[in-house]
Design goal:
Ser_AcTrfase_N_sf, Ser_O-AcTrfase, 5-stranded parallel beta sheet, alpha/beta, cysteine biosynthesis, 183 residues, UDP N-Acetylglucosamine Acyltransferase, domain 1, 6-stranded mixed beta sheet, Serine acetyltransferase, EC 2.3.1.30
Length: 183
């Protein structure tokens, strides 16, 4: 399946309001942000840095979503609404991540090198989540709305609060998912 078809299917699977592919392409800022990021990331990796940054700033102006061209983004990223999202230069985002509005994947400002978060495959970042520093959110973790994540979060857990604390283990999340899928 092409990357475009994959992305369209991702939006249709994750947003009950999503209609046709044409509607998604024309009205969803997350799709535009990802499109512009793919181009700016390509330019950034070719060391065509100023045009890459200019394109990312244009995308920010159009979408309200700021993604540094150096950020690495996996497949099927679902951005719902998106306004106010900021993704820093050394952030890494895995496949099948769901991200809601006003999420920040930021640095602390006192580090060089890798200074932004790594987000594992299948992670859910609810609205207004702030993930700060060179930390890792494990695969399939869920981070509740307005949480401030300052330390690594293990795989498969649910974390909430300021600072974020684990409130549901991987086993509890797995059991709840299994119960929701029984016939």
């Amino acid at each position: 399946m092409s990357a475009f078809k994959e992305l369209m299917q991702t939006y249709k699977n994750n947003d009950p309001a999503a209609g046709s592919s044409a509607e998604i392409v024309l009205t969803y800022p997350g799709v535009w942000a990802i499109f512009f990021h793919r181009i700016s990331h390509f330019l950034y990796n070719k060391r065509v840095r100023v045009p890459a940054r200019m394109l990312s700033m244009f995308a920010r102006w159009i979408t309200g979503i700021e993604i540094h061209p150096g950020a690495v983004i996996g497949r099927r990223l679902f951005i719902d609404h998106g306004m106010g999202i900021v993704i820093g230069e050394t952030a890494e985002i895995g496949d099948d991540v769901k991200m809601f509005h006003a999420v920040t994947l930021g640095g602390r400002g006192d580090q060089a090198g890798k200074r932004h978060p790594t987000i594992g495959d299948g992670v859910l970042l609810s609205a207004h989540v702030q993930v700060i520093g060179n930390i890792t959110i494990g695969k399939q973790a869920k981070i509740g709305a307005s949480a401030v994540v300052l330390k690594d979060i293990p795989e498969g857990v649910t974390a909430v609060g300021i600072p974020a604390k684990v409130v549901k283990t991987k086993e509890e999340n797995f059991r709840k998912t299994a119960e929701n899928h029984t016939i």
